[in-house]
Amino acid sequence: MKLFRYVTEEDVIPGILIDGKPYSLEGFFEAFGEETGAYDLDEYFFEEEGIAVLEDYLEQYGTSELEPLDEDIQYASCVARPSKIICIGLNYADHAKETGAPIPQEPIIFFKATTALCGPNDDVVIPRNSVKTDWEVELAVVIGAECSYVTEEQAVDYIAGYAVMNDYSEREFQLERGGQWDKGKGCDTFGPLGPYLVTPDEVDDVDSLPMWLKVNGKTFQNSTTAQMIFKVPQVISYLSQFMTLLPGDVISTGTPPGVGLGFNPPIYLKPGDVVELGIEGLGEQRQVAVSWEDAN
């Protein structure tokens, strides 16, 4: 399944893409929520095995009970209110090399603030006093069930689905202001997620997904998930040794080479720049960079 969330005048509502056509899941969630308390693509939906329930619903009714939507959808983040957004740094060897960092021997972990989460086509706001806002196309993994201390073999059983994430980074805040990376990673709008949450059965090989990113029409990143140092099961298992992963948690698995920091001289975003990115089978995003002053 390809699930999404879309914005209306009153609310954000879950939907589903079937045979390339978008449908609202408002009616399904009204009934499912009344029974379980889960009204959105959030921790409670996954906790209540909502994906399996929705599969049974679609097998029984098909699209007959679903409201078709116009193609012109304003997408929200494909997951609502994750308890945490965990990111893996330098998980592509060529990216580590371009930033002058050594190849990690274990996954490098940092967190992105949940307030950074936004829709895949929302504007990216260049923070106040920022001159080094950068881009990073990444494969995100959404956790489907609570887990801790799982093995790599067990890890795949805890995946709800995959999505596209742009791990925006303010490099001065991240690297030149002391402390950890988080202050350069958690700015508002620095976590566009979606458009779709794609369930694992629709992904033939998560280890060979082409991924790309363009700025103003010029390709800067062009790689595949085959280049990841630590694969998805390794990452989930590793993280679960240090923290409990909850349903709806988002893990962003790292970026390939081609970020602005890696050029000489570096290239950073300025107001009016257009960033487009995508991962094969998971969808595409588009953000326009705006200044903090114009956004507020």
From TrEMBL:
Annotated protein name in UniProt: 2-keto-4-pentenoate hydratase/2-oxohepta-3-ene-1,7-dioic acid hydratase (Catechol pathway)
GO molecular function: isomerase activity; metal ion binding
Gene3D superfamilies, A to Z: Fumarylacetoacetase-like, C-terminal domain
InterPro entries the UniProt entry points to: FAH, Fumarylacetoacetase-like_C, Fumarylacetoacetase_C_sf
Sorted UniProt keywords: Metal-binding
Family: Belongs to the FAH family.
UniProt-listed GO biological process terms: carboxylic acid metabolic process
Record's keyword annotation contains Metal-binding: yes
PANTHER family: FUMARYLACETOACETATE HYDROLASE DOMAIN-CONTAINING PROTEIN 2A, FUMARYLACETOACETATE HYDROLASE DOMAIN-CONTAINING PROTEIN 2A-RELATED
